[in-house]
Design a protein that fits this description.
The protein is α+β, with helices and mostly antiparallel strands. Helices cover 24% and strands 30% of the residues. It contains one helix and six strands; from the N terminus they run E-E-E-E-E-E-H. The strands form two sheets. The protein has a four-stranded antiparallel sheet, with no helix packed on it. A hairpin with a 5-residue loop joins strand 4 and strand 5. The longest helix is centred in the C-terminal third of the chain and has 28 residues, at 85-112.
Length: 115
Amino acid sequence: MNNIYVPDLSYSCYTLIDKDTIRAYKTTPYNPGYNQTININYRDYYINSNYLYKDGIQQFSNYTTLPICLEHSSLTNEVYYRNDFDRILIIFVILCIIIFGIPLKIFLRFFKRFR
């Protein structure tokens, strides 16, 4: 089973808006009574934009089609399931080389002169 990475699992309902967006609702959407509307806060996570998010409010009425929530067992907040994890690892390796490799090489060459 493939897990879907979501940065915050504290929301009650998650749904796929399109291939690049996951919408997380604070409360599970429902149809209110006749001639009533409810407002539910949501957060859109943009998967291919390093999980940037945008908050908003969606209005539901008796005539609104409810979104289909994803199963919580298919969601995870483990970093290893991010779709940009490979880019994170490449940046980490490059930073390690710059921070540790280059100063170590300079330090070792400096002490070779005193032999």
